[in-house]
User: Which sequence fits this backbone?
């Protein structure tokens, strides 16, 4: 391919599609050998500069962070990289004998030092931590006779806050004027003076940002203040941000128990987030949200996705007991709440306070206390969900409800679940985490009328039920007759996990007919049997082949393995037989359903 200047000919690199230009640039940056290092992008950028602006834009469109820019764009007589002795090194440093570096300035910077920076920084549109591998292989540049063990150089040198301030005082501001997307994870490591942050996330914040995903480092003296500072900086520097995600990044050098295992590491406080009026998505992990910022989030007019957890403090979310708040989270469509022990009631109260108009998805991860109130709490939770003002829009509910006690000790009965029958648009309902949901045929009939669009019903049982005595607390009450009424009315049902007692097979005044029309065939493909009591394999298989003719998976942990194995084998034979009956009838011009003996 001829390398020509822009405008000289249309056969040059600038005439190629953007994706192909990007592929060429990355081929120049990597030699394809996993053990070899990527070449620096600056020579490639210099070459592309004389070919076309589109090629140059592609090369600099996405960077892992600003660290490569400090290495490539600052004059060599201005900056220097010094190695740092670390007290505790992470697994990569130990495995590869990697070198940690610190960026320092040899002299006071001047505006002239940033001419090259200004030219290239304006082309960066995205900072993505996964865009490039994190090290250079230094051994590739050594003479063969001097090569020993491979050494790696980190691409993210340490920049102290004072150094960032000094650079920003002389560098054209903002540092990355056209960046739209930021995905960055603060790193930290230990030196003789304590823990340090490699490059603060705040250095990347720019006015044009629309989507931000930040992993915040742990070593800050006051983690709450660090989270609050990030929010305040975002609200002042990038007020037009639409998607924001924050989480805690745990360095791999930390020894001992996971600092996040006991709950959130820090708490978002203050009211700075109210300035982000265009926010549509807010997600945090291992960072709880105090009441003040939660109220600010509730008044944002465009917030559609919320993934948060309440603080561990008692009564962290103290809502007005008078009921739901007017226009509190009005635009919310997707909600996820994570409540550790002690904060479960806050999550229930929150569901009872919001007033969304188009909520579609609810995901809850809660932990109940060990005081015998699990079923009452579950009932309150279902009441809050069933009382949502947007009952006609809720389609998906997933509850993970556990405790520290033995799985299966919490049992929920039909009255607890009844409030969810108000959600007539429901398509997916999943309850997992350890409880056992006991249904009866009456409840199954009510579900079939209330949820005509249901696709997945999954009440996951952690352990099989007790067969004897018959009145054991976790003995299934639903029968195969209830199964038939459910699947025959719910035409869209595809996956089913309900505890059934299958020892009695109904006759229905004869056998259910073999459907001659595809529209009349039940669509259930997966049947979970962990909570089921098996019956006679031959009779159960015959029944299932008529009611659930499209089953492809018998799933779940089963105690009576041989019984279920025989049931499944008989089911396959019956399905093949029913298919032959259907084909025989259709060949003879029959279009009415056949009653099978």
Assistant:
């Amino acid at each position: 391919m001829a390398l020509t200047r822009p405008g000289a000919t249309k056969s040059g690199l600038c005439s190629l599609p953007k994706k192909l230009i990007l592929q060429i640039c990355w081929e120049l940056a990597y030699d394809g050998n996993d053990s070899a290092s990527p070449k620096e992008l600056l020579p490639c950028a210099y070459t592309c500069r004389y070919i076309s602006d589109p090629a140059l834009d592609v090369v600099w469109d996405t960077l892992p962070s600003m660290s490569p820019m400090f290495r490539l764009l600052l004059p060599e007589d201005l900056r220097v990289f010094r190695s740092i002795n670390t007290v505790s090194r992470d697994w990569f440093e130990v495995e590869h004998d990697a070198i940690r570096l610190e960026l320092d300035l040899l002299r006071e910077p001047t505006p002239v030092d940033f001419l090259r920076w200004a030219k290239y920084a304006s082309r960066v549109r995205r900072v993505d931590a996964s865009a490039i591998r994190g090290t250079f292989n230094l051994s590739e540049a050594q003479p063969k006779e001097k090569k020993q063990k491979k050494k790696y150089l980190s691409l993210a040198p340490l920049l102290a806050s004072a150094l960032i301030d000094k650079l920003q005082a002389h560098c054209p501001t903002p540092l990355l004027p056209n960046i739209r997307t930021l995905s960055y994870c603060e790193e930290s490591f230990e030196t003789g003076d304590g823990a340090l942050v490699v490059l603060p996330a705040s250095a990347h914040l720019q006015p044009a940002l629309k989507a931000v995903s930040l992993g915040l480092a742990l070593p800050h003296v006051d983690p709450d203040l660090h989270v609050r500072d990030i929010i305040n900086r975002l609200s002042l520097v990038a007020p037009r941000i639409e998607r924001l995600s924050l989480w805690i990044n745990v360095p791999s050098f930390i020894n001992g128990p996971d600092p996040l295992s006991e709950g959130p590491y820090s708490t978002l406080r203050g009211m700075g987030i109210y300035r982000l009026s265009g926010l549509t998505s807010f997600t945090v992990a291992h960072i709880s949200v105090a009441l003040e910022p939660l109220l600010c989030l509730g008044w944002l007019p465009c917030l559609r996705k919320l993934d948060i957890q309440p603080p561990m403090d008692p009564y962290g979310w103290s809502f007005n007991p008078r009921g739901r708040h007017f226009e509190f989270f009005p635009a919310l469509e997707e909600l996820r709440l994570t409540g550790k022990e002690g904060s479960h009631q806050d999550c229930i109260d929150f569901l009872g306070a919001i007033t969304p108009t188009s909520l579609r998805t609810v995901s809850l991860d809660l932990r109940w206390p060990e005081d015998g109130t699990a079923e009452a709490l579950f009932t309150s939770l279902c009441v809050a969900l069933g009382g949502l003002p947007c009952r006609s829009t809720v389609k998906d509910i997933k509850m993970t409800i556990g405790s520290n006690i033995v799985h299966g000790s919490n049992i929920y009965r039909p009255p607890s679940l009844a409030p969810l029958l108000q959600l007539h648009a429901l398509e997916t309902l999943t309850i997992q985490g350890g409880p056992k949901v006991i249904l009866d045929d009456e409840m199954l009939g009510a579900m079939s009328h209330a949820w005509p669009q249901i696709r997945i019903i999954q009440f996951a049982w952690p352990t099989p039920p007790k067969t004897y005595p018959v009145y054991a607390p976790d003995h299934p009450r639903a029968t195969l007759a209830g199964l038939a009424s459910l699947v025959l009315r719910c035409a869209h049902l595809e996956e089913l996990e309900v505890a059934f007692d299958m020892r009695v097979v109904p006759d229905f005044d004869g056998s259910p007919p073999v459907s001659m029309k595809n529209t009349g065939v039940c669509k259930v493909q997966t049947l979970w049997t962990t909570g089921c009591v098996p019956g006679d394999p031959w009779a159960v298989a015959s029944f299932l082949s008529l009611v659930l003719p499209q089953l492809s998976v018998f799933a779940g942990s089963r105690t009576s393995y041989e019984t279920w194995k025989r049931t499944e084998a008989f089911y396959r034979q019956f399905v093949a037989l029913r298919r032959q009956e259907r084909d025989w009838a259709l060949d003879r011009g029959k279009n009415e359903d056949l009653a099978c003996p």
Q: What stands out?
A: Residues 1-11, 31-39, 133-155 have pLDDT under 50 and may be disordered.
